[in-house]
Amino acid sequence: MTIRLTLLVDSPSKRAHGNAGSRLALGLAQTGRAETTLVCYGADPAPTWLPPEVRIHRLGVDRVSRSLPSLVRYLRTQKPDVLITRQVHANFVGLAASWLARVPPRWQGKIVLVQDHPIELSHASNWRDNKWLAKLSYRFADGLISPSPTVLENVIRWCGLDPSSTALVPNPIPKFSATLASPPHPWLRDGGPPVFVNTSNMTPWKRLDLLIDAFADLRQRHDARLLILGEGAERSRADEQIRQLGLSAHAETVGWVDDPLQFAARAWAFVLSSDEEGFAQVLTEAMSTGCPVITTDAQGGGPRFVTDDGRYGWLVPRADRAKLAEAMVRMLQPEVRAQYSELGQQRTDALSPETSANALVDFLSGHLGLDNLVLRSNVPRDADGRLAP
Length: 389
Description:
Helix content: 25-40%
Shape: elongated
Mean pLDDT: 91
Strand content: 15-25%
Structural class: alpha/beta
Order of helices and strands: EHEEHEHEHHEHEEHEHEHEHEHEHHH
Largest sheet: 7 strands, parallel
Distance between the termini: 20 Å
Low-confidence stretches: 372-389
Radius of gyration: 22 Å
Number of strands: 13
């Protein structure tokens, strides 16, 4: 028997949440244990590496807050066994849609929420991620998964959930198999000084100011470059800090890029300076390319989990400029870089799409008892894969 799963994502190919969903769908296809559909409220195309057996369904809206009617119709007509939603405000929409789709009783599936950031911190960073509403509503979900132990413990405690209704399912990362294109930035050409790379949405808690300060300390003793990828509210402030420190010839904000892994694959090291990270998917992405990582021990526990307490990446105290600069200096040593490059790739092997997919399906089968659902191999379906009337 295979389980019919629907993953609600913003985009199948862009932004962290969409990439996490698509990579999980890849793993589910690899295991053969689930039929997966990505239900999207964005118009971005599917990634080229997504298997054709993963279906894409467009809700025809541009944001999750407008997707409720379309999502209810989808649940009533397609009748997936499980709907999985991600992000706090998307979880609210999913809970409302699951309730409406069952009244009158038309959809009999389960809803599982993904919480990938401590709820109190999510609330502080996004007014839509209301921690009090989460505390009230999350208990009505059939299950909940999180990508790191710290986040899972936080949501269990904050929302008063039964731990047996939750599971750890890390955000997966596939092996880096892309062809290296020509260097995406002149500083990444062979023969130049070492280049450190950072990718973020440039919010205040990503602490670009800390990263730039640490890089300035490194520049007093060593020749190196810094490229900061992404768009966000802090970009102009970062540009001004770079100018004031006299680093304009050595550090640069690049803006949004479609394929940040092409930068990581050619960088000397990836540096994450965040104060908060529930998982830190940018770390596993960099690791997959062979790029060693340096990261702060951010609240939310993501970097500590991804690096396994610093075994697979260089972990420094949060908000510690001196320690961050020291780690960057140490990483300039070729033998240190080679060691962490190999360790990072070893870590991503343990976070493969197939491993995360198996963890998810084991949880769904065990906790939700999906073996007892109406879906079985001998249940008739129509040509579109829906349950026959």
